[in-house]
């Protein structure tokens, strides 16, 4: 993570933003559990979903919207929500060594398989539609990279941004 706070701009990578969000989930999960709010995939309900969405909105979405040169009207898919069509004007893509194909994998969530939030979960797209009959894509979060895709043809994804602070 870069800490270049010159002239009110924080130079950071999209990967760092998503991993800061993941760290916030890991830190907050035990506290939520004390309040009888479960975070485990099969036990989590609206309370945890609301907490996770709030963290995602304020750590990832707000930073992306505040990036120099980007439009504040950018919309990203909500955290851990499935859509039939991904028509938002921006997407967080998973750039991962195990995704050797040219398929676009949109960041969906983090899951707990061996440890808390150790797995990144993505949605495989065909164009801007969720690929029919394909399960959610999963891989270890420790080696994942993330990028910001603007519009349907904004390739390659943006990996570093300057957040206005």
Overall shape: it is: globular
Terminal CA distance reads: 16 Å
User: Based on helices, strands and strand pairing, what is the structural class?
Assistant: alpha+beta
Distinct helical segment count: 2
Mean pLDDT: 88
Features:
alpha+beta, 9 strands, three-stranded antiparallel sheet
Tell me briefly what this model is.
The protein is of the alpha+beta class. The chain has one domain (6-164).
What is the element layout, followed by pairings?
Layout: E1 9-13, H1 14-34, H2 46-65, E2 90-95, E3 104-111, E4 119-126, E5 129-130, E6 137-140, E7 145-150, E8 154-158, E9 160-164
Antiparallel strand pairs: 1-9, 2-7, 3-4, 4-5, 4-6, 7-8
Helix pairs in contact: 1-2
Structure, described:
- Helix 1 packs antiparallel against helix 2.
- The chain has one domain.
- The radius of gyration is 16 Å and the shape is globular.
- The protein contains two helices and nine strands, in the order E-H-H-E-E-E-E-E-E-E-E.
- Strands 3, 4, 5 and 6 form a four-stranded antiparallel β-sheet that branches.
- Helices cover 25% and strands 30% of the residues.
- The two termini are 16 Å apart.
- The protein is of the alpha+beta class and 165 residues long.
């Amino acid at each position: 993570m870069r800490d270049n706070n010159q002239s009110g701009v924080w130079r950071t990578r999209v990967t760092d933003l998503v991993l800061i969000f993941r760290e916030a989930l890991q830190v907050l999960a035990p506290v939520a559990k004390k309040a009888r709010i479960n975070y485990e995939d099969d036990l989590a309900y609206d309370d945890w979903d609301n907490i996770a969405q709030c963290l995602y909105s304020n750590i990832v979405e707000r930073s992306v919207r505040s990036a120099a040169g980007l439009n504040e009207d950018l919309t990203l898919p909500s955290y851990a929500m499935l859509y039939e069509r991904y028509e938002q004007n921006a997407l967080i893509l998973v750039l991962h060594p195990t995704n050797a194909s040219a398929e676009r994998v949109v960041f969906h969530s983090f899951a707990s398989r061996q440890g808390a939030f150790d797995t990144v979960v993505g949605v495989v797209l065909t164009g801007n539609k969720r690929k029919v009959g394909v399960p959610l894509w999963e891989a270890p979060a420790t080696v994942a990279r993330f990028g910001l895709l603007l519009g349907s043809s904004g390739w390659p994804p943006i990996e570093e941004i300057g957040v206005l602070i």
